[in-house]
Amino acid sequence: MRDERSGIGTGIVLITVGLLFMADRQGYLSFSQLWPVILIVLGAVMLLFPTDSAQIGLGAGSRGITRGRGRRSRVSRGIWLIFVGSLLLANQNQWLMFRDSWPLFIVAGGLAMIFGSVGRRSRANETTDPGVSPGSSGKDVTGGGPWR
Questions:
Q1: Are the beta carbons of 81 and 56 closer than 8 angstroms?
Q2: What is the pTM of this model?
Q3: Which of 43, 56, 44, 51 is CA-nearest to residue 11?
């Protein structure tokens, strides 16, 4: 199953690149204005196929796949690729220039920190008993139970 998904993701990327080149050669669109679409498609493939998308090119490397963290980091890489690709596409087509959009990187960094800490907190809560806080002995000291 792993090879099948990797093949699907790679196929999607190749189809996108081929269509962009074909549109450029036919005179419909300029590849120089639409090349960031490749980054957006790579990011979308990483989101659609998070367990295997690292084999598509950008994520392929000498680092091995880590348990649990590998899937999350590929999803975050996919989101960043879509974000950066969208900004590059907007800049190439002069919809939103870099000089006007650089604060979005600060906003994106803040969102990444928020969602990263929320994800870590939810995973920590899944591994502990919901009625007992991590540092307590489990005894009801306040008389109100764990929800008070």
A1: no
A2: 0.59
A3: 56
